[in-house]
Write a structure and sequence with these properties.
By secondary structure, this protein is α+β, with helices and mostly antiparallel strands. The protein contains 3 helices and 4 strands.
Length: 109
């Protein structure tokens, strides 16, 4: 997992296909890790830009849900930011989670 973290930190804005190809033999039904989600820390002011980026990666209709609100109860380390699912590997294994904000309580995401 260290190599995956380093890939993401040094990829200069990786795309879904790069993420999928990098993890191709590390995730999936025959792997110990069924799927891996990428949750970029996204300042609330950049939510729209993230949605546009997802669209460019082929995720039609991608939306951060629920949309960030000023009165969201966030963990202290996410002041005015969120953790929406941007990429998954394998691509379709966890696609139902795309856009969901994982910093919220399970019942809210």
């Amino acid at each position: 997992m260290t190599s995956t973290r380093l890939f993401l930190e040094n990829s200069n804005s990786a795309e879904q296909l790069q993420f999928q190809n990098y993890l191709k033999n590390r995730t999936g039904i025959d792997s110990i890790i069924q799927s891996l989600l990428w949750l970029p820390v996204t300042p609330n002011t950049l939510t729209r830009e993230l949605e546009v980026r997802a669209l460019k990666n082929g995720f039609l209709g991608y939306r951060v849900i629920p949309a960030p609100q000023p009165d969201d109860e966030l963990p202290y380390f996410l002041s005015q930011a969120s953790l929406p699912v941007l990429f998954v590997s394998p691509r379709f294994e966890g696609s139902d989670y795309l856009g969901h904000r994982f910093e919220l309580n399970e019942g809210e995401a």
